[in-house]
Amino acid sequence: MRYFGTMKNVDGILEVGGVSVEKLAKEYKTPLYVMDQQLIEDNMKKYIDNFKSDKFDTEIVYASKAFLSKAMCQLANRYGLSIDAVSAGELYSIKVSNFPMNRVHMHGNNKSIEELEMCLDWGIGVVILDNKDEIDKLGRLAEEKNKTIKVMLRVNIGIDAHTHEYIRTSKHSSKFGESIFDENIYSIIEKILSYKNLEFLGFHCHIGSQIFDTKAFHEGIETMLNFTKEVSERFNIYIPEMNLGGGFGVYYVDGDTEVDIEKFMQSMISHIEKTLEKENMKLDRVSIEPGRSIVGNAGGTLYTVGGTKETYGGVKYVFIDGGMTDNIRPALYQAQYEAVVANKLDETPSETVTIAGKCCESGDLIGKNMSLAKAHEGDLIFVPTTGAYGYSMSSNYNKALRPAVVFVKDGKSCLSIKRETYEDLVSKDIFLDI
Ligand code: LLP
To answer: What CATH topology corresponds to 8-30+298-426?
Structure first.
């Protein structure tokens, strides 16, 4: 298993952020999401320090769908990142975290009137319009409220990055964005320009998630700049901004060739600078929206083994106290993970096992054919790289309690999201009175 950030083997026991996972399990119980704060901060810094240019401003917009909490908003604010949201719920969570709302970007392929009103009333930095209908909705609302708002248009640039079909977002038939290959695109842009309360900044694209193929991002840069130039000439307007989305792939298992943030950000910047020069273009600002690559490797899930079982069919199971309710990705995307018996790091892995969760669902597995030291009841299993899309996609299936999230750094731990309680589970449940 690969170690990330501050993960360390101390006398056979895993330590994250200078805190032993045995101690964390005792204090906070399991299952538990453990977030390596130092690694999150280092990743944020890497983006800020390397995605910068002296030709244009840059903006790192943390894609909060990966993992959103007050602590994440605090850190994003501390490092000068912006945040993107895709729902009223995310907007609300960001607002109550005291994050400056003028650094929030609002996404979504079907924003409700309520959401658009929130954007106007709360002074959201920019709304990324996803389709034609939304333009009228926001344009009219802004007029009614006599407010102006900055907007971008999400475009679909037809780049097919190699990633899982469910997280691919930029094919020609995607539900997101308007295609730049469609003749209607110009009337859509015209519509935006016709609303005097919508201040058009430029185009946004996001070609998918967990992408290793960096060529796809470079193609994206070319396509976006060409399109920006074409539109700017056609309408005789200056288009000041471009947003290239997120999607930079991280390591989960052997064979994953993660994107090196430092190098890749520099190469994106130099590609943009060169193309601008070649095309005799100018931009005021370029943004990107990394989510997974900021928090993915920084989070891990700690479980306790309840027991083991060797089946008649030959499969050996290790049963853990969580599963698909805290990590749906294996069931949903056939995502793979590594794992370790976190209190037996000095034992050589001697077993090939399937780690299974507690749900009434055969697909409730964290991984098959995993190489582990022999695990027994009471041992701790640590599954790294669950920091992105782990907690945020968790559920109460089988009335599981969502685990707590604890941040660790410099030998200290800080509870960041409380474990759900049984009362939480029924708190919205009402008896019939008819
Ligand atoms: N910007 C936009 C417009 C997006 O739709 C996304 C992710 C991002 C940025 C951030 O992408 P990232 O840097 O995190 O790859 N639930 C799936 C991932 C879905 C991603 C959706 N959009 C998973 O667990 O793999």
So the answer is: Lyase, Ornithine Decarboxylase; Chain A, domain 1 (2.40.37)
